[in-house]
Write a structure and sequence with these properties.
This protein is α/β, with parallel strands linked by helices. It has nine helices and seven strands; from the N terminus they run E-H-E-H-E-H-E-H-H-E-H-E-H-H-E-H.
Length: about 260
């Protein structure tokens, strides 16, 4: 089985292509399962407008589009409806409602802690050790809720850290232990790998992180993190990810069930 559950749409304001173009590209790329997981449509009571996710009022359009494609391409590819979402404790009551309205899964992706209304992007803030500890602790707290299927780019915190130091190791241990206890895979992120292979590294997937966490023997899943349909047909990146994980003795899982 070749699966990808991490696919975005134009609604997040930083991805290209139509929903159907992603489906066609996934079929061309040999995928058996394509999961859409656009950035969650959090409804911010403050009126805050996010620059990197669909507005709450686009959720139903997103849902209906994906479900329509699921029916249209049945027999050619299995399509699943999800969301990539943070853990915002004050707004967690929104996730069960989205489940009730058809969302099949949530990917944990702590791009921001507490809420983006008042907190900076974690890729930047985790340069500070105390912020990194909060990132790890809050990720563990999120995994313990049972709301999420796996954690996307767990090594996002290495984006701007100069080295994989003691604080980085401690954070990795907290995340890996929580994932193990929650039976959640960790994602090896192909968006970051793709950028690195093109000479624009973003700090993840971080080689030292993945070498270090081998001791935990976590389940690992590949995520294309597609923001353009053509990324689903980029076989060299997919093959390189498999090669790097094999060198670490890791065989990726194809689902979290």
């Amino acid at each position: 089985m070749k699966t990808n559950f991490h696919t975005h749409t134009f609604r997040c304001k930083h991805a290209a292509g139509t929903d159907e173009q992603y489906v066609k590209a996934a079929i061309e790329g040999g995928f058996d399962v394509l999961g859409f997981a656009d950035h969650a449509a959090w409804d911010f009571p403050s009126g805050y407008v996010s620059h990197c996710r669909m507005p709450a009022d686009q959720w139903h359009d997103y849902r209906d589009s994906v479900l329509s494609l699921k029916e249209k391409y049945a027999g050619q590819i299995a399509i699943r409806l999800g969301m990539e979402t943070e853990y915002y404790p004050r707004y967690m009551d929104q996730l069960p409602r989205l489940r009730e309205e058809g969302c099949e899964y949530f990917i944990l992706a702590p791009h921001f802690l507490f809420t983006e209304e008042e907190h900076p992007y974690t890729g930047i803030s985790c340069q500070e050790d105390d912020e990194l500890k909060r990132y790890a602790d809050q990720s563990a707290e999120a995994m313990a809720t049972g709301q999420y299927c796996y954690m996307a780019h767990p090594d996002l915190y290495m984006m701007y850290r100069p080295e994989f130091d003691k604080a980085s190791m401690d954070a990795a241990d907290v995340i890996c232990q929580a994932a193990k206890e929650a039976h959640m895979p960790l994602e090896y992120n192909l968006l970051g790998l793709r950028d690195a292979m093109r000479g624009h590294p973003r700090g993840y997937p971080h080689a030292d992180f993945w070498q270090y966490i081998r001791k935990w023997d976590n389940d690992v899943i590949l995520g294309v993190d597609a923001h353009d349909p053509e990324w689903l047909t980029d076989l060299p990146v997919w093959d390189e990810a498999q090669k790097r994980l094999r060198a670490l003795g890791i065989t990726p899982v194809t689902d979290w069930k």
